[in-house]
Design goal:
The complex is a heterodimer of chains A (about 475) and B (about 210).
Chain A (H helix, E strand, L loop, with lengths): L2 H12 L1 H21 L8 H17 L1 H14 L3 E5 L2 H14 L4 E4 L3 H5 L2 H7 L3 E4 L2 H9 L15 H12 L7 H18 L2 E4 L3 E3 L4 E6 L3 H7 L3 E7 L3 E2 L5 H12 L7 E5 L13 E7 L23 H5 L3 H4 L10 H12 L16 H5 L6 H18 L4 H14 L2 H14 L17 H8 L11 H6 L2
Parallel strand pairs in A: 1-10, 2-3, 2-4, 4-7, 5-8, 7-10
Antiparallel strand pairs in A: 5-6, 6-9
Chain B lengths: L1 H13 L22 H14 L3 E4 L3 H8 L5 E3 L3 H6 L7 E2 L5 H10 L2 E5 L2 E3 L4 E5 L14 E6 L4 E2 L2 H7 L9 E5 L4 E2 L7 E2 L6 E6 L1
Parallel strand pairs in B: 1-12, 2-3, 2-4, 4-7, 5-8, 7-12
Antiparallel strand pairs in B: 5-6, 6-9, 10-11
Classes of the chains: A alpha/beta (about 475), B alpha/beta (about 210).
Chain lengths: ~475, ~210
């Protein structure tokens, strides 16, 4: 685990207000989900999960076929598809288009994929104004922060934080009433929508047989982003593809329920191409940017490729005992929680934060709530194994290897094991905090780090072996 | 070029060759319950109310809309049904606009937008709006209040029935939107606020 990761975790744990905010928000989202996937409300929930998993598996196994079908259908409806291997290619494409169309103002709706490639920063670096329009994302853009949660990006901000941010950045009188803060944002952003040259959205699904993108949202900002400006650009990962529009009857029932516990989000938009002959409004130009950015790297592994089934509902975050303590910003990249722990090492390389797959209790809750049945705990184990293998190759962590070898040797020698057990019992601290018993020179560095997170219960008066003999 | 590069990487990774047909996809899962019209209407009204919208049954949509928009400015879509009902000719209602800039300006300053839903989903209380020369997107989006008129024969049971009637919505429109309740957010402290960017008030009239 890197010192930075460790430090962020400790800072989060020490912040009582933040702990309360994370706990309350995730508890509410979690509770809403549970109520809305209850058999009394959605009797076929488990069948829907199985169906969603089967469709995603099929789509990924035939990904090239569906990407080409998607592309043909987008073109048939007058749109264009642009394949990009990384963030630089995405921003190059958008910058060139903006220059050609003399566009300066961009409105954006919430998209984790564009967070992944720091799209706003890239565009603003070249003099374009790119404004986030989802309320939470807008607050974070003003505060120059990353999303804290896939679905509730600003869950760590209180109304008082928002008041400070708005006063400082928008030069408005301080306002702490949430309804009024929302109205302030609505007013500022409404003008942006009506003046914007380009709208950039993400996509929850890419529908191959229709050449359509599907967007799911509650505020209406994605609808405005995709229908007010004359140019609409959707940026999506290549894995978002589903074969047929009819598959939405499965996915839409799962997505909002798993994310926020709504039966459907307020707005579900199914968009296929620019406005057609006679349509009064809607964009004149429609582009879909299909982004790789590391996704093809994890396709070859048949087990780990299921990480690409993810529909970004955030249910695994809300249920994860680790996320609920360490929060979103402790994670090294834009994706947090269990899903972040499995896709970050695969997209960015295992060396990015080797401690990440280990930051899990492997309780299995994430796998249980996943609407597309990704076996997250299994992938975490596989990634742990990858990290250890690469450490072996690089001959790192000799101390840990030595310790585990000694442990294995002890475990295979019953006499010695018993002796070690009674010795340990004799010196064991009554409160189980072994860290205090380790003598000074050893109580440093890796030993300290290891023991700081691991306690043993106080030893019993008699060991199991002793009781067995005296039975 | 990145297109060929990415497709090549995908093919290599999943073990396919260019142009190879895909395996048969799993069958679609469409289950349409049989629900009689009265129950669909009851469910639609109850669901919209539960979402903090207003929902009514009316045999006189013109009279209903007239009293709902009294003293307010409204813009109505060009849906033939609204014309037939006489809603487009109500005082204070502008309709028949086909120019994008004019419509946008009007929507941005009107109090109410009036549309006719193409379908509605009874089990979730959703309106289904297909963009067309008759139905513009902005009318259900820019004004702070939205009134949707739903002829009752357009009330479907739910998503499954919608996608069985419209297996490929893209063949009919560039934009299909499902609207389920008023625009909302809970981005600050998980406190629910209605009317963020879209209408904060939604009224459904089943005729």
């Amino acid at each position: 685990m890197s010192a930075e990761f460790d430090q962020k975790i400790h800072n989060t744990l020490a912040d009582a207000n933040l702990q309360l905010a994370i706990y309350t928000a995730t508890a509410r989202l979690k509770e809403h989900r549970i109520q809305n996937v209850d058999p009394g409300v959605l009797p076929d929930y488990q069948e829907l999960r199985t169906q969603a998993n089967t469709i995603k598996k099929h789509a990924i196994e035939n990904l090239d076929h569906y990407l080409e079908e998607f592309e043909r259908n987008v073109v048939a409806h007058g749109g264009k598809v642009v394949y990009c291997k990384d963030g630089t290619e995405v921003s190059d494409f958008i910058l060139a288009l903006a220059k050609e169309r003399n566009a300066h103002l961009i409105v954006k709706s919430k998209s984790m994929t564009t967070e992944e490639i720091d799209l706003n920063e890239r565009l603003e670096h070249h003099g374009l104004e790119s404004v986030e329009t989802d309320l939470g994302e807008y607050i974070l853009q003003l505060a120059h922060e990353r999303p804290y949660h896939i679905v509730a990006p600003a869950l760590h901000k209180t109304r008082y934080d928002v008041a400070d941010i708005f006063t400082d950045r928008l030069k408005v009188p301080r306002e702490v009433v949430i309804e009024k803060q929302t109205a302030i944002a609505r007013g500022v952003l409404r003008e942006k929508f009506l003046a914007a040259d380009i709208g950039i959205s993400g996509a929850n699904f890419l529908v191959a047989d229709s050449g359509a993108i599907v967007l799911v949202e509650n505020e209406g900002n994605a609808r405005l982003t995709t229908s007010a400006p004359k140019i609409h650009i959707a940026v999506a990962g290549i894995e978002k593809i589903i074969p047929r529009a009819q598959d939405l009857a499965t996915f839409l029932k799962l997505l909002a329920r798993s994310a926020t516990g709504q039966s459907l989000s307020v707005y579900t938009s199914f968009l296929s191409g620019p406005r057609r002959e006679g349509e009064i409004d809607g964009p004149d130009e429609f582009y879909v940017v299909l982004l790789d950015n590391g996704r093809t790297k994890l396709l070859p592994d048949r087990s780990k490729r299921q990480s690409l089934y993810c529909i970004r509902c955030g249910a695994c975050l809300n249920t994860c005992p680790v996320y609920r303590k360490i929060g979103g910003h402790s994670f090294p990249w834009v994706y947090s929680g269990p899903i972040g722990a499995i896709i970050t090492p695969q997209f960015m390389g295992a060396g990015h934060e080797p401690g990440l797959p280990f930051a899990s209790s492997l309780c299995g809750a994430c796998g249980e709530v996943c609407p597309v049945k990704i076996d997250i705990p299994k992938i975490l184990l596989e990634l742990r194994s990858d990290v250890k293998k690469s450490e072996l190759r690089e001959k790192q962590n000799r101390l840990e290897r030595l310790a585990f070898r000694a442990f294995a040797w002890l475990m295979t020698h019953p006499r010695l094991y018993e002796m070690a057990g009674s010795m340990a019992a004799a010196v064991a601290p009554s409160d189980g905090r072994w860290i205090r018993t380790v003598p000074a020179p050893m109580n440093l560095g890796p030993v300290k780090a290891w023991l700081s997170q691991r306690d043993l219960p106080p030893p019993p008066a008699k060991s199991f072996r002793q009781m067995w003999r005296q039975r | 070029m990145s297109r060929d590069h990415i497709l090549h990487r995908v093919r290599t990774a999943v073990g396919r060759s260019a142009g190879q047909p895909a395996a048969d996809p799993p069958p679609v899962r469409i289950r349409i319950p049989s629900v009689d019209l009265e129950s669909r209407i009851a469910s639609m009204l109850a669901r919209v109310e539960a979402l903090a919208g207003k929902a009514y049954r009316s045999d006189d949509p013109r009279g209903f809309v007239e009293s709902a928009i009294a003293g307010k400015t409204a813009v109505a879509s060009n849906a033939p049904y609204l014309v037939e009902c006489g809603i487009t000719s109500l005082p204070g209602v502008r309709s028949g606009i086909t120019d994008r800039a004019e419509l946008r300006e009007l929507c941005a300053k009107s109090d109410v937008g009036i549309t006719c839903a193409d379908y509605a989903l009874a089990d979730t209380g959703s309106l289904v709006m297909l963009s067309s020369p008759q139905e513009a997107r902005m009318i259900s989006l820019l004004p702070p209040a939205h009134i949707a008129v739903v002829p009752r024969e357009r009330l479907l049971t739910g998503l499954d029935e919608l996608f069985s009637i419209l297996p490929r919505p893209a063949e009919q429109t560039s934009s299909m939107v499902l609207i389920t309740g008023p625009s909302r957010t809970a981005d600050i402290e998980q406190i629910l606020v209605r009317g963020v960017h879209g209408p904060g008030q939604i009224t459904v009239v089943v005729v």
